[in-house]
Amino acid sequence: MMVKRLEFDHGLEEMTELLVEMGRRVEKALVESMDALKNSNVEKAKKIVGADHELNLLEEKIAEIGAKLIATQQPVAKDLRRILIAFKISSDLERMGDLSVDIAKSVIRLDGQELFKPLIDLPRMSEIVAVMIRESLQSYVDENVDLAYKSAKDDDQVDALYSQIIREMFSFMVENPKMVSQAMLLSFVGRYIERIADHATNIAESVVYLMTGKRPDLNQ
Amino acid sequence: MNSIIEINDLDLYYGEFHALKGVNMEIPEKAITAFIGPSGCGKSTLLRTFNRMNDMIAGTRIEGKVEIAGTDIYSGDVDVETLRKRVGMVFQQPNPFPKSIYDNVAYGPRLHGITDRKKLDEIVETSLRSAALWNEVKDHLKRSAGSISGGQQQRLCIARALAVEPDILLMDEATSALDPISTLKIEELAQELKDRYTIVMVTHNMHQAARVSQQTVFFLNGEVVEYSETEKLFSNPTDQRTEDYISGRFG
Domain ABC transporter, which positions (chain B) (predicted)? Predict the structure, then answer.
């Protein structure tokens, strides 16, 4: 006879909803900070920095629900893994939020300077990463290992673009020493986006762990 | 790990009811093996085959083999009393005899012919120490066993089982009638005893199986669904029915 564990299942659903909400906010923070960068929009960047604490609150809320479920419901096996990865995913998302804030802070440091060239590769990178965020979380919601692997695979494209950007920036800095500061900031933005992709890959790893009980290393 | 109990193609019937179906299993020596599963799944029935307690139930029929240390315990020449001396048992409800604490522990050794007072004193003290009860009762050994707490009574029953120097200790839901502190004491005791004895426990408390045992067996409808190391069974079971049961979604 199958039995429903209503309170436990309700707690798990609540954690999933909060994680999806965190993912939605992280994606928004990334897209908007890149938009602020393209348009040198310092005001928009400041708003993004100001909104980050909401993400931290969501992470705390997830930790609170998970701790309560462990203490009162004594989960085992997949139920326990579900809670453990919710902690891990929320921590990854919180870091992704911080990195989006770092992009916004770079916009503030540029302080409206005109960019030395139109941005092409950085937006391409961020578009791929936005899809990775969405798909890695969708793989969590649907418990879809194939989608988790697909999402992690996209990290290769991000890494390739990041290497290309760094090479370009170095060449540019050698040729234009006066623009070193801006080129450095844009290199850092590339680094922040690349790190966000690594955290999205961690989410995919967590989904594989949830479904198989084994920890893959997809961040290679 | 060496196995001490070997079960081959075991079927057990209570009249028409097929209670155990084709059980094959090896139980390791000097370790704790836990049997879990919903009520009526056969876990207690299997436990009771190890000291032939099912013999007392009319209409019980057994096919297959149960070997303890290489001896088929259902072969005609096995003396059941000797078997039960080697395979002690502790039950759900503490069942001390209406005698003194001392006489409860000395009962088995006396039955097996030990009369020397000094030798009996020694057995009583060693058994009570092994059952982690000595310090609590050493000054009241003549007191009635019924006057101590339920948790102490259960440890007294363990001491009584240990007094005849068994190889195997069977615990049939031995803590289900106890409060959490007494339960914890019995669990700690089982951990200490496993270095010297083989312990097989039936428990309805899955978290107890997870805390205490090294091996866990999950039964359903008289069959063994999964038998593996406890850590593996509770973290990543192979069979979906095990997962559903330990997650509280089935049973």
Answer: 5-246
Per CB-CB distance under 8 Å, the chain A contacts of B249 are: 2-5
Going by C-alpha positions, the residue among B247, B152, B145 that lies closest to residue B206 is B247
How crowded is residue B45: how many other Cβ atoms within 10 Å of its Cβ? 23
DSSP letters of A123-183? HHHHHHHHHHHHHHHHHHHHT-HHHHHHHHHTHHHHHHHHHHHHHHHHHHHHH-GGGHHHH
The 10s digit of each residue's pLDDT in A178-203 is: 889 999 999 999 999 999 999 999 99
Of B247, B250, B251, the CB nearest to A76: B247
Residue in A5, A74, A213 closest to B249 by CB? A5
pTM of the model: 0.81
A62-87 exposure pattern, b = at least 16 Cβ within 10 A, e = fewer: beebbeebeeebebbbbbbbbbbbbb
Strand order in the sheet with B71-72: B17-28, B3-14, B60-68, B71-72
Contact between B248 and A3 using a beta-carbon 8 Å cutoff: yes
Closest chain B residue by Cα to residue A214? B236
Domains and CATH numbers, chain A: 7-212 (1.20.58.220)
**Is the complex ipTM higher than 0.95?**
no
Structural domains of chain B sorted by starting position, each given as residue range(s) with its CATH number in brackets: 3-246 (3.40.50.300)
Q: Is B229 on the interface with A (CB under 8 A)?
A: no
Residue with tokens 């992690």: A152
